[in-house]
Design brief:
The chain has about 250 residues and is α/β, with parallel strands linked by helices. The chain is about 45% helix and about 15% strand. It has an eight-stranded parallel β-sheet. Residues about 240-248 have low confidence and may be disordered. Bound molecules: pyridoxal-5'-phosphate. This is Pyridoxal phosphate homeostasis protein.
């Protein structure tokens, strides 16, 4: 298992380096986030003990289950899944340093209330739906600037950039369009010069499309399968379940 994961990590770093070279970018500008949904703490630890620093979970339940086992191993944890407002307390308890999936105002409002009470701040990325697929979360590109202006009013939330899940397609050019939308939106937001808003980070690109994402300006690629192997559940299990919101 260890050999398998380390070998895969080496391949991923080579892919990132090569893509950066092609795009004329410095590989230090692109951070690797390991998407660890369904991955056991033992396997995650192998990666963390061998140079990796950043992981991302999709579900509070998994965050909770792995928390104790990973606590002693230095790392940073981002949340990359759909977040229900009734789970906010947990996300703060399990020391997530960034929520990459902030996509609506009521969630921002409740996060702010909680953070204010705890005297804390939290980094966030705004998740944008660039593929126009109903199954995915994220704010529509056309509504993103208004959302960001509203979220920027909450001093506890530090907006650092944007996140998207590209279209699932074998056609690289269609996927590229999604990443271009995110990049263009970033540029537009920078021009707006909104106080309390930084737009440095673009979290885009996964196992299958990280090269395209890097060419289009990604600063965080989120990789699961290509490091840990195939998952048992289809991704729709992670990306659709929240459409039925728990009653709050
Ligand atoms: C699972 C997941 C990834 C990684 O996907 P892979 O295809 O396994 O690399 C990236 N981003 C999000 C939001 C995910 O849920």
């Amino acid at each position: 298992m260890k050999k398998y994961i380390l070998h895969n990590l080496e391949i991923i770093h080579n892919r990132i380096n090569l893509a950066c070279e092609k795009a004329g970018r410095n590989p230090n500008e692109v951070r690797l986030l390991l998407a660890t949904k369904t991955v056991s703490p033992d396997r995650i630890k192998i990666a963390l003990e061998n140079g990796q620093t950043l992981i991302g979970e999709n579900k509070i339940q998994e965050l909770k289950e792995k928390y104790e086992a990973l606590k002693g191993t230095l790392h940073e944890n981002h949340f990359i899944g759909h977040l229900q407002t009734n789970k906010i307390k947990d996300i703060l308890k399990y020391e997530v340093t960034c929520i990459q999936s902030l996509d609506r105002l009521d969630l921002a409002e409740k996060l702010h209330q909680r953070l204010s009470a705890d005297n804390k701040t939290l980094e966030v990325l705004i998740q944008v739906n660039t593929s126009n697929e109903e199954s995915k979360f994220g704010i529509n590109p056309g509504a993103a600037i208004e959302l960001i202006k509203n979220v920027s009013q909450f001093p506890t939330l530090k907006i650092k950039g944007l996140m998207t899940i590209g279209l699932f397609s074998a056609e690289a050019e269609k996927v590229r369009q999604c990443f271009k939308i995110l990049k263009n939106l970033q540029q537009e937001i920078i021009r707006e010069n909104i106080p309390n808003v930084e737009m440095k980070e673009l979290s885009m690109g996964m196992s299958g499309d990280l090269e395209t994402a890097i060419e289009e300006g990604s600063t965080i690629v989120r990789v699961g399968t290509a490091v840990f192997g195939a998952r048992m559940h289809p991704d729709s299990y992670y990306w659709n379940e929240g459409t039925i919101e728990n009653k709050e």
